[in-house]
Fold:
Amino acid sequence: MSKLMRAIRVSEFGAPSVLRLCSDVEVPQPGLKQVLIRVRACGVNPVETYIRTGTFARKPNLPYTPGTDVAGVVESVGADVASVKVGDRVFTSSTVSGGYAEFTVATDDCVHKLPDTMDFSQGAAIGIPYFTAYRALVQKAHIKPGESVLVHGASGGVGVAACQLSCALGLRVLGTAGTDEGMKLVLNNGAHLVFNHREEGYTEKIMNATDGNGVDVIVEMLSNVNLSNDLHMLSNGGRVLVVGCRGSIEIDPRDTMAKEKSIIGVSLYNATACLVLNHGNKLLQEEMKESAALFFAGMEGGWLRPVVGSQYPLDKAAQAHHDIIECPGAAGKMVLTI
Structure:
């Protein structure tokens, strides 16, 4: 194995152009309970663009390599790793050294075997989308079979995962998308009804579809645009899960009072990053194991089907960061292939 690798490095915060491909980056070595993965694909997530700008609450030390959702092959393992071995096909939702690279290190808690039925691009579309959807719906909203859920922005990686998971857990699933392609994708991945959130009056159509009662849960990908409207679409005791946000918004708190509605923030980083930094945290380990167990059941049962959207080579990471924010409508998980 070469001691040097290609990797995207960020030496200053800013526009997508700060993502630089370097060919002289040292290959990281796995430590105690760590796994070195030869990366074949890495998912691109909106949060990585926010971190890159330097405006996100969490700022990594410069320089750094972005990326967490990796799929590849185990190259080597550190001491006390028993869950995987060299040669295993794996995926992870959290890395120590960054995923936009030919090799990355992850803690064994966060590394899972990738079924042979899925290719590496699909493996790179599992991590953050499915773990986030599960954390939002199950661990935060405490959904129950028979409830209704609106996935607001359902054609992207997290949205598709939320639709599939909601359907599998017995919810009535409504979704929104911004293009005809996105709407078809949402219907094909578990939604019972879909609406175009670019059309005027679409919120009225959603309320009519619920006989004016509203939905029990909303999974919100763009809360800085939709949160105020979301509060008006919730039923008694309804919950809106804030998964994505690109700025501030003004809301009237009284909109939460009459029907005792809740606004709940969701951050997968609180689970995965803390697990990496505080190795051995049993509560977080149990949360991740709980999620992973359901996902493996979903893979075996056929309802967990990651949808891969646009794919880019590693040297086009800057273009991927531009497109994931500027594209008119998401259609699956964006992935870098390596």
Notes: Residues 270-280 have pLDDT under 50 and may be disordered. The chain is about 30% helix and 25% strand.
